[in-house]
């Protein structure tokens, strides 16, 4: 089963921790590498697809938290740069949604990995660091999902997610502000509510400025951890896809302009 719209991928995406042992085929790997090349050129990041490497997730597989992880994205970028961490979330999630469109599964991973093994198998240039990784591959029992309708898969996946409420995602707005906000803002927030985040903290929240028609994304500093900027980037991408069109400026408080 494949999905033509990125919003479809958002709606059916969930964190996949158990994988089919079948390797990613060469054509699929070539498509992902092409997408990575484009993203790296655009963002200045150094995201890489590592295939057929089981040692990085060895401890997580041994503990039962994951199964059959043999492929992952290594998320590499400039050392100590929060803007690049945000871009890593934004563009890394773009790659993951592309993979989901092609019936692959993925899971962002901040811990549960052997970082030394990842660093041994990926390329890290001078001035760069490994931010985190994302497991990727064919989900366990993926053939069963291929027989299901889109609506059925959405329903199943929705039971696997927990999320803060819409009100929590728009914490600075009152009920009247929310009622008067345009439909694209509501759709953007609803898509961001489905975004993955480290330890499911969901530190990003959004506001709408009726005077100039812009939205803003913020970090909840009570819920943040070391991956807050990565989570902010992921949430911004989901919002942008849900809103339909437009672009963000980077950073905490970055503005979204509808196009």
TrEMBL record:
<dbReference type="InterPro" id="IPR029478">
    <property type="entry name" value="TM1586_NiRdase"/>
</dbReference>
<dbReference type="Pfam" id="PF14512">
    <property type="entry name" value="TM1586_NiRdase"/>
</dbReference>
<dbReference type="GO" id="GO:0016491">
    <property type="term" value="F:oxidoreductase activity"/>
</dbReference>
<protein>
    <submittedName>
        <fullName>Nitroreductase</fullName>
    </submittedName>
</protein>
<feature type="domain" description="Putative nitroreductase TM1586">
    <location>
        <begin position="6"/>
        <end position="243"/>
    </location>
</feature>
<dbReference type="InterPro" id="IPR000415">
    <property type="entry name" value="Nitroreductase-like"/>
</dbReference>
């Amino acid at each position: 089963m494949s999905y033509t719209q990125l919003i479809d991928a958002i709606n059916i995406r969930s964190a996949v921790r158990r994988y089919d042992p079948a390797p990613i085929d060469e054509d699929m790997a070539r498509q992902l590498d092409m997408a990575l090349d484009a993203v790296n050129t655009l963002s200045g990041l150094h995201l890489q697809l590592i295939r057929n490497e089981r040692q990085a997730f060895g401890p997580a597989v041994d503990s039962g938290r994951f199964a059959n992880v043999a492929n992952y994205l290594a998320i590499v970028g400039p050392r100590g740069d929060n803007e690049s961490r945000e871009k890593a979330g934004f563009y890394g999630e773009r790659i993951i949604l592309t993979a989901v469109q092609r019936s692959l599964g993925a899971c962002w991973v901040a811990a549960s990995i052997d970082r030394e093994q990842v660093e041994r198998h990926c390329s890290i240039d001078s001035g760069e660091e490994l931010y985190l990784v994302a497991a990727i591959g064919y989900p366990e029992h993926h053939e069963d999902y291929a027989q299901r309708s889109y609506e059925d898969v959405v329903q199943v996946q929705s039971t696997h997610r927990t999320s803060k409420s819409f009100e929590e995602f728009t914490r600075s707005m009152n009920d009247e502000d929310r009622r008067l906000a345009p439909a694209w803002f509501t759709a953007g927030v609803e898509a961001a509510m489905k975004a993955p985040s480290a330890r499911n903290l969901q530190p990003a929240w959004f506001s709408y400025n009726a005077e100039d028609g812009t939205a803003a994304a913020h970090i909840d500093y009570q819920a943040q951890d070391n991956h807050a900027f990565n989570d902010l980037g992921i949430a911004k991408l989901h919002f942008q896809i849900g809103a339909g069109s437009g672009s963000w400026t980077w950073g905490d408080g970055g503005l979204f302009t509808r196009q």
